[in-house]
Amino acid sequence: MASPSYKHFLVSTPLPNVAHVQINRPAKLNAYHEEMWIEMKTVFDTLSLSPDIRAIIFSGAGDKAFTAGLDVQAASQQGVLKQQEGAADVARVAVGIKRHVQEFQDCVSSIEKCEKPVICVLHGFSFGLAIDMSSCADIRICTKDVKLAVKEVDIGLAADIGTLTRLPKIVGNHSWIKDVCLSARVFGAEEAYRVGFVSQVLENKEKAVETALKMAELLASKSPVAVQGTKELLNHARDHTVASSLRYTGVWNSAAIQTEDVTKAMLSGIKKTKPRFEKL
Amino acid sequence: MASPSYKHFLVSTPLPNVAHVQINRPAKLNAYHEEMWIEMKTVFDTLSLSPDIRAIIFSGAGDKAFTAGLDVQAASQQGVLKQQEGAADVARVAVGIKRHVQEFQDCVSSIEKCEKPVICVLHGFSFGLAIDMSSCADIRICTKDVKLAVKEVDIGLAADIGTLTRLPKIVGNHSWIKDVCLSARVFGAEEAYRVGFVSQVLENKEKAVETALKMAELLASKSPVAVQGTKELLNHARDHTVASSLRYTGVWNSAAIQTEDVTKAMLSGIKKTKPRFEKL
Amino acid sequence: MASPSYKHFLVSTPLPNVAHVQINRPAKLNAYHEEMWIEMKTVFDTLSLSPDIRAIIFSGAGDKAFTAGLDVQAASQQGVLKQQEGAADVARVAVGIKRHVQEFQDCVSSIEKCEKPVICVLHGFSFGLAIDMSSCADIRICTKDVKLAVKEVDIGLAADIGTLTRLPKIVGNHSWIKDVCLSARVFGAEEAYRVGFVSQVLENKEKAVETALKMAELLASKSPVAVQGTKELLNHARDHTVASSLRYTGVWNSAAIQTEDVTKAMLSGIKKTKPRFEKL
Amino acid sequence: MASPSYKHFLVSTPLPNVAHVQINRPAKLNAYHEEMWIEMKTVFDTLSLSPDIRAIIFSGAGDKAFTAGLDVQAASQQGVLKQQEGAADVARVAVGIKRHVQEFQDCVSSIEKCEKPVICVLHGFSFGLAIDMSSCADIRICTKDVKLAVKEVDIGLAADIGTLTRLPKIVGNHSWIKDVCLSARVFGAEEAYRVGFVSQVLENKEKAVETALKMAELLASKSPVAVQGTKELLNHARDHTVASSLRYTGVWNSAAIQTEDVTKAMLSGIKKTKPRFEKL
Amino acid sequence: MASPSYKHFLVSTPLPNVAHVQINRPAKLNAYHEEMWIEMKTVFDTLSLSPDIRAIIFSGAGDKAFTAGLDVQAASQQGVLKQQEGAADVARVAVGIKRHVQEFQDCVSSIEKCEKPVICVLHGFSFGLAIDMSSCADIRICTKDVKLAVKEVDIGLAADIGTLTRLPKIVGNHSWIKDVCLSARVFGAEEAYRVGFVSQVLENKEKAVETALKMAELLASKSPVAVQGTKELLNHARDHTVASSLRYTGVWNSAAIQTEDVTKAMLSGIKKTKPRFEKL
Amino acid sequence: MASPSYKHFLVSTPLPNVAHVQINRPAKLNAYHEEMWIEMKTVFDTLSLSPDIRAIIFSGAGDKAFTAGLDVQAASQQGVLKQQEGAADVARVAVGIKRHVQEFQDCVSSIEKCEKPVICVLHGFSFGLAIDMSSCADIRICTKDVKLAVKEVDIGLAADIGTLTRLPKIVGNHSWIKDVCLSARVFGAEEAYRVGFVSQVLENKEKAVETALKMAELLASKSPVAVQGTKELLNHARDHTVASSLRYTGVWNSAAIQTEDVTKAMLSGIKKTKPRFEKL
């Protein structure tokens, strides 16, 4: 089926029910400017509700980079990093910055809020925003030669689009997190794998995309009620107590378990057939 | 000393102050039906208050499985996975499901609420409910040949008895958690060890039980005031802020430190003797 | 520049903007008594506000120990572990203990509250309090021969100065945490590295301090607005939901991004020069 | 229909779908001993799941008291307020107390957890436990001559069965709450009404029970899906952030709104008829 | 200045820097259908960022109603209350409902998220959605003849657009809240004032709007940095612990206090002049 | 007994075990400058631990004011409200402000953290800081002629020392809170009483102090274990869920109930004698 066409993203459906989102500014190492993150929200919000899509893979176009992060040159000419002229009132500038940061955060969070699972393929330069965005994805895999960095300290600021908020929740090695966030040093695939930031390392981009597609195909073959419920409940658990999440889970499944997918799945488990689940 | 006798569980005391709980339905790969999880709550509630027990190990009977999970066949004939007949009101069915799920959750949570440390030995098939239950245990070890899986997606539902709630709190690799929970794929001992789901891998079930027993013996030799306080405070920390848990800890120890165990333990530390602590 | 002089700590500035704090009771394996932890709070509170300091390394003096923990002999003669004489009212004793524990906790928490990043070098004996204190540090590295243990259970009590509260938040392997906290067993560098309690292992103390100094030097060369903001935001994230931390982050940066450090850092990034940042 | 018979409680169904629970120890001003609160949990747990019951009123038997609170004489001879003999270990006694208090709390909380709305009629002496229990009810009304008091301070302890936990959440006048909880002074109907602890004051017990019954009859005439959902969502809101409760609410209603009660209720609204809702 | 024109809302600026938003469907008692709440979000989002607006009043057009709530007839023909045809899968319907409810909640929450203070004038029929929306406003005043009701139970559902979530946080009389939410009964101005749902009662709509305008005029005359910061900090406090909100407040004011409004306000306080504050 | 002497506060013990703290700058309407709030922390920290003190009353010296709030003139010459000279870096100024605000907050919070109950007598001018401080007290009473105001908006800032954080937790009328905080308008005793900000109104200062002393005398006559535990548990409840506070309460009382005060209190209740409790 045809996908809507975007200015800064390639969105294709290489397999039934699987979307592939590519950041499409390879000439600039897929660096982001404001128009791009606003469009990205549209991409993921659309896929979130698209009944034909059950799993998404997210990568950069081209061989060099997932994304080199913020396009610093663009940022220094507009937006909050643009130098303020003389007399502006600090508090009024601050309100403007806060609004801008919140809008930027919302755009990045659209990846996390997307109801379908998102598999992020980190490859080549994957700096700054690359960490913010991939931390919103569900599954992170990378290539052997990936160059990762929480780069923000090196442009004089604390990362504010999600990295510092989400890394401590998704990786259980705070000594390492503090190290890479405070030093802004580049780290590679092996290190990312060892500490649990990515769960798989592939030979190169081709293999990584191939692996992500297979994984997405597998997820897309399962009950979307079960898969999307699982994503939601895992995300809920991250931010609530055990008691609160158990309560939420019980209510969630009080509707979800009434699906016919359960019967279909159980039957095909017994009959060793491949179930076909309705759209969601 | 004699242990009460149960229908679906073998409960023995292989060592002084150490209980061994075995799921006892080996002919069916220790698969669970409703009567079993209700009885399991009784087992752990009883051990929790038994003054003679200071540490517990939990395994499956037989060589093949810790547990293959829910007895799907039984479940499809009763309980919430049973197909509803025609005209039932969705909201009323939902309330019934919610009650059922909460009761099931409560039974599984009894392992976590048990005041004594629980060491879970995962071996053979350890699917679905095996992950829910072992996530409630304090220490997880496994055999080399264990076959683990968060299986629920494959029967068309999101796991609702605790796995999705607790895994993100006890394993610091969310990319991996999302992977195994969304895909329902089987994973083995090495992977479980690498990501930190289990903290030890043993050659086979015999060795694993032996290791668990030694560990339990060690814990049982220590001050029960100290050991059980440590379990409680670690569980509290998981669900509260640092400030809140420090406050709770101070209050907890305001009574606990008044125990004579402290003097006994310090003296025997100096005298290099083995302390004997009173029942708790 | 000269550092204030302390009774139990050596505080030096081996490199510009870098402080080195050494626990200075090597003859007693740097074991702590009450006067020491109270002084330690002064040390870290002072460094926290000192504009000349941008990074701190923390180690023990001498070759044998970071710290062997609480000086149990001293503790048994004063403070809460001193045996209470006969007739004291339990509730009144409890209030005294609670106050004492809270004061002790506050002293240890000063490491975490210190606005500057703290790199902790664990070496030799690093028992009990060593874990409480290093868990407050930002980055933990250790020597090959370090001997680590959550020792409190062996003196009859649950650790109450921070270990049980912070370990479950900074290490993503709860099975391992329960194991070492309940058993009080000694563990080494390799294990600490594998589970993510430390992020680097060095050959010996000399190398470890050298490595820590280089790391500190690097952090001290960066924008203090960015570095200290990053520490604060990562600590905030640990104790709040994602939504709450994103909101806090936006407000934090609404002032912080107005710093001239951003321009300086971006310019020097472009010009490949080394920026010089004002004191903070 | 017949109600189960209890030793310490009168449980009747004065109106269809309405249960009346009376504390039945009028000779002792309905003072509680342990057996009573354990039985009370059974009463409310049973009503919670009874499909024939849609609203509950809760009062004391006799004219003199809702309840005078804990039967102090009984309590001084058993349970946690019984004087401990000489040599008991403080920490072990503490664990016993904690277990006892938690069990007592659980029994009282059964009123709050009851899925059906509970209207509490406070009359005559309503001391100590009367406040703990009525704070769990949904609606509190009282008689003109009620004598209310948070009495626990006068027996040397801080109320621990729920009053201190719930009052600050259900009454928005913390200065008043601190006043009555710290002073243990008796307060009357007018004061209770003014600060919002009760929402109605009636002439005498007869009128109060009559009013409660009419209120219960009204609630019982409405959709049980709507009524019981409303209770659950209001209780959830009390303990969660707005964002978290909105999320929970959306999931709750995703099943509940599929009820046929919505259609029935809307139709009868249009047709001005009285709808009849199925059991829940 | 000219205001944008909307289909379902009248938006005027009766005084400098003060907007008046009127629900504009008086012929239907200002009852809402989906298009209206979506447009309402646009109205409040726009005002939130409009530098010319510093305070907002919100009322219904016409004499009869603020709003009679959901247009039940419209709702029964589209959206989630529309009867589902036969064979739809319960879980899939549930996901659709959840999305719909969340979107509806988002629209209503735009009143709370609006950075400018919103004064809500409740008059005439103010049912259902009227409570959801006014609970998002900052200040609620009403007319003597207002007819208020949490009506949802009477159409067979638990209110899910915010009433049940916010009422327990903004009114400190949970007995009363449970009463009106469970019974759906109509209540008037005096009762709303007594329990603290509204903070002022006016003779009639004209007087109420006049009072609201004066109040808005006063707020608009003050420093927008101070006024909008106060709204944000009060909203933050509602959902966070005291410690967490104090921390947030300190960071918020670290930028806000740098405003020139402080100097202006202090000077004009001393000089008894009227300060003029810049746009925000 | 003699009380320590302070520069800005009169601290006396008008009754056994009762302290009276008076703000002692009547010539300036008891307006605060920095030295005062730092000293105030010492006053309350000292009383908190003083075994001879069991209740505290807090008022202003002189007839005119509890306190007119911040000494704006002093504040404009030092501290964070002092106008910054030209070239200061916004982010560095912000860090300084944040530190200053946090220190100020800590001083005010000492009233809340004080282990003994604090009764605040509001009289005459009670502006700004008067609300921040009295919101930390346990019980608030006032004189008929008190003039209260959340004044901060009128000096161009959002109150940041506690008012905006605590008011929404201690008064259950958010419409009123928003009104007085946004408008900075003066309100009187009757209004404060009606909304529940104060719990008693007295004829004049003399009567109010007399009433407060009687109340304090009563609290001081009761078990300090019970009274101070009650304060702690009510404060804990304000910031935690019901489940979490019940858990904390159980642990708190596991030590506290072991006090001999329970026996003393129960005996004297039976014997109608006046118990004498040991110091705490």
From TrEMBL, chains A, B, C, D, E, F:
Pathway: Lipid metabolism; fatty acid beta-oxidation. The keyword Amino-acid biosynthesis does not apply. GO terms for cellular component: mitochondrion; peroxisome. Belongs to the enoyl-CoA hydratase/isomerase family. PANTHER family: DELTA(3,5)-DELTA(2,4)-DIENOYL-COA ISOMERASE, MITOCHONDRIAL, ENOYL-COA HYDRATASE. One of its GO terms (molecular function) is delta(3,5)-delta(2,4)-dienoyl-CoA isomerase activity. This is Uncharacterized protein. It is found in: Peroxisome. SUPFAM superfamilies: ClpP/crotonase. One of its GO terms (biological process) is fatty acid beta-oxidation. Keywords: Acetylation, Fatty acid metabolism, Isomerase, Lipid metabolism, Peroxisome. InterPro entries: ClpP/crotonase-like_dom_sf (IPR029045), Ech1-like (IPR045002), Enoyl-CoA_hydra/iso (IPR001753), Enoyl-CoA_hydra_C (IPR014748). It comes from Cadophora malorum. The keyword Nucleotide-binding does not apply.
